[in-house]
Amino acid sequence: MITSIENIQKELEEIQNFLEVTQSEDIEEAVLRGNSLAVYMARSGKLLADAKIHRDEKLNSEIIARIKELTSLSASSANKFIDTLTKDENHLVTWSDRVNAACSRQLEWCRTVISKGKAELQALKMYQG
Q1: CA gap 123, 29 in Å, rounded
Q2: Are residues 58 and 85 in contact, defined by beta-carbon separation less than 8 angstroms?
């Protein structure tokens, strides 16, 4: 099932808000955040694919509707013209891609915090034991 453009926008806003929260170095928080990030990463990948479908559908319908205009333009002008026809869809594609990448980077940061905490705990046990 393809997510509607409106729902893509709404979900990306929700994920974006989550991503903009400053992360602490608390291990338990990193684990919880990492779990959420894994879900958001998967979802944003799906939203990216759906946004590309919407862009391609719009592009196909607009090209067919404007084929005479496009054939009279140079290749670079035609590409710019096409980009303007699908600017909203291109925005969703770019945003979905950036959100997905941010989820990946933040998930990696959570792993780092967890690893650091484990190492500190092991060092403390060795020191005490």
Answers
A1: 21
A2: yes
